[in-house]
Design brief:
Length: 762
């Protein structure tokens, strides 16, 4: 018995030790790129794929388990890999553009994506941000990939055979391929895209160089081999090259692409790969990831928490991705997805502001402002070349989602300190977008005449998602007002936006205490079910969108009867059963299912509209409830596993929620110089800012039980407010959280400590 007791003590000690990870040196090693890949259209656990690339790189690569054209390019439960695809895909729902793939084959020559597919196992798969390896069982080939921003190296380890092949698939919808055996080279382009319209000359040009002579070379057209021509322009073009290999022989392929020309693709390859071997490119990629991730160092979490944190941080660092390139004179140039010209300056693509205005862009403004400065310059070019700011770029204007949230993205960047670009042009772009309907529903403001005249978009004028549009336009107007003030614009120009920022009140229904669609004659829509998804709302119901008053939460609380009733209303979200009415969709969409199965009532963290709601307890004097529910959500809804998200990850937004929350604060109101406090997840977090200053967040007593803030010191002085300022953090700061197992119900309960609201602004 004594030996058993000692053994148990030893186990307990080792378990306890394992629960506290100290300072780490290589954060990239903690990332699981497969987090969120166990997904399907009916249920999203992230809807991610293992993105092999560099931060904000123009291209990423992924093993392709789905058929060509399938948005679900890689799913964890698949058995076969069909190719290795260069991708720019922001989500499966948006699908891809400019994609082509490479696949090794042995034995019988097979080239279409069904025939060439090979069985694989996760047991023989290595997935890292800068490196991917998998054993293709049917071909008896190990494929390795390591990327740069616009290029990559492949290393194929072949068996002994005289029938080793590499297949290039330029996909359908118009493609070109040419094999140049004397140079061991293949060039081609793909013009395929999923979301348009795009200019007729849209192409992704690629060049591939091999380190081995071709014994055989053929092109193919859809499902037919072409024995005559080594150059082919058809709907669906491809190439296959072959050679004899020895057991264990490694064949290298260097690949690069360009949206501009073959010459630019060659230039990208020579600049980014040069004479580097595969392992040198891999080492450089690893170093870039470690340097980028090390801007935030976390200590004192469990192994799972560390893995989840850095896996989420990895996801925040891809989108929007660079669409720009460096020409022969090292000048920054880009292909314009708006007018088809090659023009100077920055360009980015692949993000939906409806998702990312909430936390992803504020996160960049805090930790990676230099890249967002480039993105703001890219937005200027979007406006100049297309006439509008994009709300979803993929890579040009995509007609999906609602709102005019480019206003938030532009305003928050400037208010958080971005300078050195043409903000006046962006100011004109915001005013243009706010007062005009665009060329499609999702650009500019759909229903703007109703909104400006009535103060809301009516329910009965055939404008879809009208209540969601009204609430988002009102917040967007607030951000325009904020930017106008920061720029010193006259009251005659900006006061209209301050007035419109209060339009949210027009949809508040006193009978239910919730937001409700309103008809053109001023009556509320009827019948009304607060559990009805869609209709007046976007991918949510009234319980989700009622809180979309980012700019004036105190005003919303007063509409609900005061702070105490406001807190009770927040509690109701979690205490109600997860009932729903899906009739507007004619079926249960995956966002509904994810809410239903999460066991958090009506709280639907798997989609964006309600993600900030947990932090609103700070506006009602009950920040301890924020602390409880933030920790619950991090614990329940995130893990660095294939099923590790609770809905679509969406371009870094759902990950940015976790990263912010783990640090202990969240940007409830972008375009305001404040973050609303929660409670940190780790014992220590150190943020290294671009200006060289550090923000240190200490919570030494933090644990799973000690999730409540007892007191807070900022820079050595007691701090009672429920928010911290961005400008204060920029000076460097030390936050010392005293954590405990029981809530401190008095701290943060005084309205003088509540975060910003427009109606209480002094």
């Amino acid at each position: 018995m004594k030996k058993l007791f000692i053994a148990l003590l030893s186990f307990a000690a080792s378990t306890s030790f394992a629960q506290n990870v100290g300072k780490i040196t290589d954060p990239v090693d903690w990332i699981n790129p497969l987090m969120g890949t166990q997904s399907k259209p009916s249920l999203s656990n992230g809807n991610t794929y293992p993105a092999i690339g560099l931060p904000w790189g123009m291209n990423m690569w992924t093993p392709q388990t789905g058929k060509n054209g399938d948005g679900w390019a890689y799913v964890y439960d698949a058995d076969k890999i069909r190719g290795f695809k260069q991708t720019h895909q922001p989500s499966p729902w948006m699908n891809d553009y400019g994609a082509f793939s490479i696949m090794p084959v042995t034995g019988k020559l097979a080239f279409n994506d069904d025939d060439r597919a090979s069985w694989f196992s996760h047991k023989a798969e290595i997935s890292k941000p800068y490196y991917y390896s998998v054993y293709l069982a049917d071909a008896d080939v190990t494929t390795e990939i390591t990327p740069t921003e616009r290029a990559a190296q492949f290393r194929f380890t072949f068996p002994k055979t005289d029938s080793s092949f590499v297949v290039i698939d330029a996909q359908n919808k118009g493609s070109y391929i040419k094999i140049i055996p004397a140079e061991r080279k293949i060039i081609g382009y793909t013009s395929k895209y999923a979301r348009g319209p795009l200019p007729k000359n849209f192409r992704n040009y690629f060049v591939i160089y091999f380190n081995k002579d071709f014994k055989m070379a053929k092109t193919w057209d859809d499902k037919k081999l072409n024995d005559k021509d080594l150059e082919l322009t058809v709907d669906h073009a491809g190439a296959v090259i072959g050679f004899a290999t020895q057991k264990g022989e490694q064949v290298i392929a260097k690949v690069a692409s360009s949206f501009i020309s073959f010459e630019q693709a060659d230039l990208n390859l020579k600049r980014e790969l040069g004479n580097d071997g595969f392992d040198a490119t891999k080492a450089k990629g690893r170093a870039i990831w470690n340097k980028t991730l090390s801007k935030i160092e976390v200590e004192g979490g469990t192994i799972d928490q560390m893995r989840t944190f850095y896996s989420c941080l990895y996801r925040t660092l891809f989108f929007p991705n660079k669409l720009y390139e460096l020409d022969a004179q090292n000048q920054i140039v880009h292909y314009s997805p708006y007018n088809g010209q090659v023009l100077p300056g920055y360009m980015f693509a692949g993000t939906g502001f409806w998702d990312t205005f909430r936390a992803l862009y504020p996160f960049l403004n805090l930790v990676y402002p230099s890249i967002n400065k480039e993105m703001q310059q890219g937005l200027i070019n979007d406006y100049k070349e297309g006439g509008w700011l994009p709300e979803w770029s993929s890579p040009g204007y995509a007609n999906i989602m609602v709102g005019n949230n480019s206003a938030s993205v532009v305003s928050d960047a400037y208010i958080k300190g971005m300078r050195g670009y043409d903000i006046e042009t962006l100011w004109q772009a915001l005013k243009h977008g706010a007062n005009n309907e665009g060329p499609m529903e999702a650009v500019g403001r759909d229903g703007v005449k109703y909104y400006n005249e009535l103060g809301y978009v009516p329910f009965d004028v055939k404008k879809n998602e009208n209540a969601a549009k009204t609430l988002e336009y009102a917040y967007d107007d607030f951000t325009i007002y904020q930017l106008g003030r920061a720029l010193g614009k006259p009251a005659s120009e900006i006061d209209i936006y301050k007035k419109r920022a209060m339009n949210y009140k027009n949809l508040f229904d006193p009978a239910s205490g919730l937001m409700r669609g309103k008809n053109q004659d001023g009556t509320f829509q009827s019948p009304f079910s607060p559990f009805k998804w869609g209709g007046a709302f976007t991918e949510g119901n009234s319980w989700h969108y009622t809180w979309s008053v980012f700019q004036d939460i105190d005003g919303l609380a007063r509409l609900m009867g005061g702070h105490e009733k406001f807190v009770t209303k927040l509690d109701s979200v979690f205490s109600m059963p997860p009932v729903f009415d899906e009739s507007a969709y004619g079926g249960v969409i995956h966002e509904i299912r994810e809410m239903q199965i999460a066991n958090m009532g009506q709280y639907a963290h798997g989609n964006q509209p309600i993600q900030h709601m947990i932090y609103l307890y700070n506006y009602g004097g009950a920040p301890y409830k924020t602390q409880y529910w933030v920790r619950e959500t991090m614990n329940r809804m995130y893990k660095a596993t294939p099923d590790g998200y609770c809905g679509d990850e969406d371009n870094g937004q759902t990950s940015a929620w976790y990263v912010f929350s783990a640090m202990g604060f969240y940007p409830v109101t972008p375009a305001v110089d404040q973050y609303v406090l929660g409670a940190p997840l780790f014992k220590k977090v150190t943020i290294t800012l671009d200006n060289g200053k550090k923000v240190t967040i200490n919570a030494p007593a933090n644990s799973d039980n000690n999730r409540y803030v007892q007191s807070l010191q900022m820079n050595g002085k007691p701090y009672s407010k429920n928010w911290i300022s961005h400008s204060g953090l920029q000076k460097g700061a030390v936050l010392n959280f005293n954590m405990g197992a029981m809530p401190n119900k008095t701290r943060g309960s005084n309205p003088v400590d509540f975060p910003y609201s427009l109606s209480t602004e002094k």
